[in-house]
Design goal:
The protein is an alpha+beta fold and 446 residues long. Among the domains are: 103 residues, Rossmann fold (3-Layer(aba) Sandwich), CATH 3.40.50.20; 90 residues, ATP-grasp fold, A domain (Dna Ligase, domain 1); 85 residues, Alpha-Beta Complex (Aldehyde Oxidoreductase, domain 3), CATH 3.90.1170.50. It has a four-stranded parallel beta sheet with strand order 3-2-1-4. Helix 2 crosses helix 3 and helix 3 packs antiparallel against helix 4. It starts with 9 loop residues before the first strand and ends in a 9-residue tail after the last strand.
Length: 446
């Protein structure tokens, strides 16, 4: 539905050049009748090389990015701003403050971007977080083990509860389980640390110039069921949008996520505890207006906070969510909800649809060059499956976690129960077959 006065309003979308989500937001903005302009971390030397009028930004410098946005807004009014993914969030928060637009506080966005600072803040607030410790990427993991800092008697002095084995080794700068490795003992810890160091020093990570790329975090491994929560904070008030079950066990050594299904099948008292933990976490981090994506682990000790980000769910996973206006009966996507939130519109009458829904992030089938995908037509014949979208193109290289950063595609399903949604996604995945060619090594000198 076209919003009142939308033709004269402009939406600024901050995104990286490789994000999945920008097209969905453009569609949602077009449906609302808004004008769209992009702010992206592309070359600032060339004059609009993509010919789309985008504002060239450097997300590793959020203050300068916000200044550039404010400079643009003096010439072309900006009425709403949304950020896609983790990297643009601090710049978006600062720009919203400069422009007087609703948004999360810059301090809160900064903390959410740093796994060490966010862990510390949540622990100070009395929330359950894994024990954690931070090390410089140049540190020698053998010396860390030899000192007893990890898995030894000194572990109790670190983080919220100390770090023992098994532990999880992760980069501070990356997201979506990239670079995250479980280590069950000293030898695995040393191998994981060195592997993450190579990843952080690789050209495609180094080009992001993130300050947190100089650190590696180590956390106590927390066992238990995992869930994800999608929510918004509307002028200080938390609104839960969906709780997703993650039915596949995420026990390591790597943590490739696959299936998300909503509504959750958690017992009502556990879901209430998750919601209460989310409320306390949002308050502790100071998030005030905008999207929130959180991940929790649940075991006999209660609810553990694994992540809380000032952004929406990533990739194409938002397609698993639909919302209905209780007044008009209008159906809205998550992108439409977030645009209305950015405009400061009333969202009180919106509720998630009654049907169960889910998404499978198709697991990477192996290392190599993608030569073919078979079974896509068969996937669409599976009862409950609505769509399958391949985001990798033929000829592209597939990389497994922990170095990999993307999935080959997504499968979407809806049905009358979460059990049937999960079953449909699993049956659909079995229909797919990938053909990969090996990556040939480069030999010789240039």
């Amino acid at each position: 539905m076209v919003l009142d006065g939308a033709a004269s309003k402009r939406l600024l979308i901050l995104c990286t050049t490789t994000g999945y989500q920008s097209h969905a937001f453009v569609e949602a903005a077009g449906k609302a009748g808004l004008q769209v302009v992009f702010g992206s971390d592309r070359c600032h030397v060339l004059a609009d090389p993509w010919r789309d009028g985008a504002i060239p930004l450097r997300f590793e410098d959020p203050d300068e990015s916000a200044r550039r946005i404010a400079e643009y807004a003096r010439r072309m009014a900006v009425d709403a701003l949304v950020a896609l993914g983790d990297r643009p969030a601090p710049a978006a928060a600062r720009a919203c403050r400069l422009l007087g637009l609703p948004g999360h506080a810059p301090e809160a966005a900064d903390i959410c971007r740093d796994k060490y600072r966010s862990r510390a803040r949540l622990a100070e607030a009395g929330l359950q977080v894994p024990g954690f410790a931070r090390f410089r990427v140049e540190d020698d993991p053998r010396e860390i083990v030899a000192s007893g800092t990890i898995g030894g008697s000194a572990a109790g002095s670190l983080g919220a509860a100390g770090v023992g084995f098994p532990c999880v080794v992760k980069p501070l700068a990356l997201s979506a389980s990239r670079g995250v490795i479980r280590a069950n003992g000293p030898k695995e810890f040393i191998g994981a640390f060195e592997r993450i160091r190579r990843l952080l020093r690789s050209p495609h990570v180094g080009v992001m110039r993130e300050a947190t790329s100089g650190f590696i975090q180590v956390e106590t491994y927390v066992d238990g069921a995992e869930c994800a929560v999608e929510a918004i904070v509307d002028r200080g008030r938390l609104r839960l949008l969906a709780v997703f079950d993650k039915p596949d066990p995420l026990t390591g050594p790597f943590f490739e996520e696959t299936i998300y299904v909503t509504p959750s099948r958690l017992p009502s008292e556990i879901e209430t505890a998750v919601t209460r933990t989310l409320e306390q976490s949002v308050r502790a981090l100071g998030l005030g207006h905008g999207p929130v994506h959180a991940e929790f682990r649940i075991n006999s000790e209660g609810v553990w906070v694994l992540e809380l980000a000032s952004r929406a769910i990533g990739g194409l996973c938002s397609r698993a969510l639909r919302f209905l206006s209780q007044v008009s009966g209008e159906e809205l996507s998550l992108e439409e909800v977030l645009i209305r939130l950015a405009l400061g519109l009333d969202l009180e009458d919106l509720r998630r649809e009654k049907q169960a829904s889910g998404v499978m992030m198709i697991p990477v089938p192996g290392e190599g060059i993608l030569k073919g995908v078979e079974g896509l037509e068969e996937v669409l014949k599976v009862a409950g499956v609505e769509d399958v979208v391949m985001t990798v193109k033929l000829g592209e290289r597939l990389v497994l976690l922990p170095e990999g950063s993307s999935y080959p595609g997504f499968i979407f399903a809806r049905s009358d129960s979460p059990e049937r949604v999960e079953a449909a996604l699993r049956r659909a995945h079995q229909k797919l077959s990938f053909t990969l060619a090996p990556v040939l090594p480069v030999i010789g000198k240039w």
